Amino acid sequence: MTSAPGRRSSTFTRLLRHGFTDPSAAERLLDGPELAAVRSDPVLLAALGATADPDLALLGLVRLLEAQPGPTDRQELLDTVIAAKPLRDRLLGVLGASAALGDHLARHAGDWRALVTYEPSDLHPGIEEFERGLAGATDPVSLRVAYRRCLLSIAARDVCGTTEVAETAAELADLATATLRAALALAEADAPGDAGLCRLAVIAMGKCGGHELNYVSDVDVVFVGEPVEGADEGKALRAATRLASHMMRICSETTVEGTIWPVDANLRPEGRNGPLVRTLASHLAYYQRWAKTWEFQALLKARPVAGDLALGQEYVDALQPLVWQAAERENFVGDVQKMRRRVVENIPAAEVDRQLKLGPGGLRDVEFAVQLLQLVHGRSDASLRSGTTLDALKALASGGYVGRADAAQLDEAYRFLRSMEHRIQLYRLRRTHLVPEDEADLRRLGRSLGLRTDPVASLHREWRRHASVVRRLHEKLFYRPLLDAVAALAPGEARLSAEAARERLVALGYADPAAALRHLEALASGVTRKAAIQRTLLPVLLGWFADSADPDAGLLNFRKVSDALGKTPWYLRLLRDEGAAAENLARVLSAGRLAPDLLMRAPEAVALLGDGDGGGLRPRPRAHLEQEILAAVGRADDAVQGVTAARGVRRRELFRTAATDIVGSYGTESQPAEADAGALVELVGGAVSDLTAATLAGTLRAVVREGWGDTLPTRFAIIGMGRFGGHELGYGSDADVLFVHEPRDGVDEGEAARAANKVVAEMRRLLQLPSADPPLLVDADLRPEGKSGPLVRTLKSYEAYYRRWALVWERHALLRAEYVAGDEDLGRRFVEMVDPLRYPEGGLGEEAVREIRRLKARMESERLPRGADPKLHAKLGPGGLSDVEWTVQLVQLRHGARVEGLRTTRTREALAAAAAAGLVSEDDAGVLDEAWVLATRVRNAVMLVRGRAGDTFPTDPRELAAVGRYLGYGPGRAGDMLDAYRRTARRARGVVEELFYAD
What we know:
This protein is mainly alpha-helical. Helices cover 60% and strands 5% of the residues. The strands form 2 sheets. Strands 1, 2, 3, 4 and 5 form a 5-stranded mixed beta sheet that branches. α19 (363-377) packs across α20 (389-398).
């Protein structure tokens, strides 16, 4: 086969055409003595070219020929390969798809004859045929050899297309069954005394139990043991445990012939901490009392496979009724919500996009969806009780529990993904669910699936297409039939019964399924374009609602918004065409009362959720807010109309801020939840404070304009205090302020004072008028003399009072003083005037420090609401906001004069400055900051969830769960949330005791 230098031989070209990637190496193999007689046979080249990897197949064939014991055997193999097409296709197909089985054939040169037979029984073998194939095994090593020989025939049928993927998976499960029986027989032969004491049943679980095993997978089992008549139960269980352990070792241990597969018994009661073998009564007691929802889900696939099959069937018969009652369990909904949430955190980031099983749109999505629907509906429909995923999916479609078209698409996608998984594992016979990265591996994989034109690109395209189908249908599978249940279907189409629809809604967390179905009917019935779009949107929206703590509220609120905006041309188009808008809306509508209440007052604000670049959910700067409000006031006919316009802007912007907070806290499918809780706290505090300042500025302008035209007889400024001055307002906070004025030149002080007081009174009245917009309560109780003092004073009056009469608590309160609205120069001069009071030269005297501590102690004892749990009170409880803020403010009062960074109204800034100056350790500052952020988020969460302010966790379970979701705790983890709060607050209180109270 040599050719002139520089010219390629015709064989080289033919090899390229037949799919060889290394024609030079292939030529050398064909020129070797093993293939001398057939090197030019066109049948052989064509057969090699039809395999997944022609290079690998040729190498495997040469190695097999080399391994033959003599020339006669070699010739027999060659003659059979050339003359018998069934063997040729099977043998070369296996050699081109599996390096591991090529190695087996090279070690056991006669096993190729297992592929020669082509009888009907050989085409579809069952457990009996595999038991005959393993019958000669007398020890673990010979069992492995016999197992691989049987596996060889399964792989041959698979790669040649004689069996499709579901049949291959069933054959692998039957071979596993036969292998478990053979291994148990070996264990019993080694310990006949143990075998005589007990009845031992092996129950297959997981993919083996479901008749859908992979080439290489853990074989999940559960063991049931009973004493034989007259035997002691304890001795019998110990004997059964020794037999079970020995059986597991026979299958799992590595020998000179490798291993078969691990036998995993961790699905048993109590997992690896529980006894390996239990009696049937013990199993039953555990499942009746302790089992979790996932454990009943696992029992869907339970099947007796080895040992005492009668005992195994008793086990299945006893536990199956419990499986179909799982959906009635008290914690089922919470468990379902936890299971429905994709858990990819444990997958290394580099592997997420390569995961066939656990990644988005992977096999687990299909299997979980099918199993959940079985649990929900199988209790009343026995036709759904199959342990095999594709059989169960077909039954769900036949019963109308899943749309037929959806089921067909999911079936196709699942078969393709399982085929990929099979061929990936077959190559090295290793357990993996990762799509390879190597080009040669991808090429082999693509060709093995019939993708011969540009196999790598075609493989990626088909894989992504099927994964996309699974992702899209995963949620739709649950919810589409609910819409079909209330819509008109084509003749002959199956639909969910009303009871089945109710069952599904309850299982997905809806507390009032009848009302939910009424909402669905109102939204999706009819033949209008609007109803058609709703039918497209609702399956996904229902899934997002079900992710929340209150799906019913989410659906009800969506119906209200849709009723209000349904006739506008842009609303449904926005939700349909901008995926972020629909998901953001679902999160906002189901997270609590505040955001939906704000939205219902002006539903057109839903447009804020759909800005494609995310700008719609970014709070606007104060300057922009003030410009818009002042412009609206300028267009108004009177002060009432002007302030109404300002309050309308405030309501819209409160909704924007709440929506940003909710979406940032929950996260979306495309954007994870904000990891920095402090950033969310500062976003809310800054946005609400800026909005309040802009609203006050607009209200002041409206009042002055109506009463005095362009100029008030006195300069007038508003000073923010408390959380307002600190840029830390929450959704339900009052605006703590001081009002200061200064008569203009030539204006009588009495006239100026009357004008200033009239402005204050009118502002407070207009901001609290009953309307669709939330009121803004203006609180001036921090003024000199408190409630007994005048509402507004001149700058000189403030200065005189503070110089002569200022109490420690008033100087303390001035730490938060900051100009927010009105005459900017007057506000600046007020702040300059109070600076020496709040940052006294030389710090505070010891008496003043003791007075602050006394005030703090009195506040803790007097202001905590009766009956409240102090440890869970976010404001006044130990380690709460008050503790942290008073500690930081004491540091400011003591050291603010000499440490410039402490001269700020913001708590976190002051705390960071104290740490930077060495006044507080970095660790202590971190503890206090964490507690302050958490307590602030708790207050924000309570307002978002309940629609009214509160300082402690709600007692209503659903509201408590909603607070938990906002804080990042999944379903059923409210207790973890409360424990975490207590821990955080307890650590902070320890720091407060050291920094605030210690001398």
